[in-house]
Amino acid sequence: VYDPTATEFGIKTNGVNFSLDAKLWWSPFTKYPVSITGHLGSMRDTRDEDNFFFGIGGELKVDLFEIGKFQTTSAFNFPFNFVSKTDDDNNDVSITMFNPGISITSSMILDRKRNLFFTLQYISDFPSSDWQYTMDSENEEEGTTDLVTMDAFWEPGSVTPTLNIAGLYFTIGISILDY
């Protein structure tokens, strides 16, 4: 028997941060389906600048109830996000964030292979790494080049950019079944 998969594509926002999300679900009709997730988007920092990010993670879903063509599920999300920007010395810096969340999704069957879904998700704010960049450092004694990690440079007296992804997000998207 062929075990189906489902692919989801969604647009997520809280009015400030935006992302395009994609999910690949294995065995979407099991009691506890699991997916691998990918994210591309922008996050606003305390300097009111938008920063590019991409993420990868996983999700575990639980069916709550189903009535006719409508289904409601809840899920736990576990994304790792990688955010980049330029510091005050024009270095390309990045930060790594882990932002687990919990969501509730309502979906409607459009046809045999497609569902339209709406998700309300709360994303938590876990501590993240510091803004850093890497550069080459020549070791003259050994004649080699080493890769060195440096902290980002922020002008004294300026606001050090921090990201706050925490909050309530809304997603609209489509799910495509493969069977």
How much helix is in the residues? under 10%
Strand line-up of the largest beta sheet: 1-2-3-4-5-7-8-11
Strand content: over 45%
Q: Averaging pLDDT over every residue, what do you get?
A: 93
Which geometry do the CA atoms define? elongated
Number of strands: 11
Instruction: Work out the radius of gyration.
Output: 20 Å
The biggest beta sheet is recorded as: 8 strands, antiparallel, barrel
Distance between the termini: 10 Å
Q: How many helices?
A: 0
Low-confidence stretches: none
The SSE order reads EEEEEEEEEEE
Return the structural class.
Answer: mainly beta
Task: Please describe what this structure looks like.
It is a single chain. The protein is mainly beta. It has strands spanning 5-13, 18-26, 34-44, 50-67, 70-86, 92-98, 101-109, 114-123, 132-139, 144-151, 167-178. The strands form 2 sheets. An 8-stranded antiparallel beta barrel has the order 1-2-3-4-5-7-8-11. It has a two-stranded antiparallel sheet with strand order 9-10. Strand 5 and strand 6 form a beta hairpin. It starts with a strand and ends with a strand. 23% of the residues are buried.
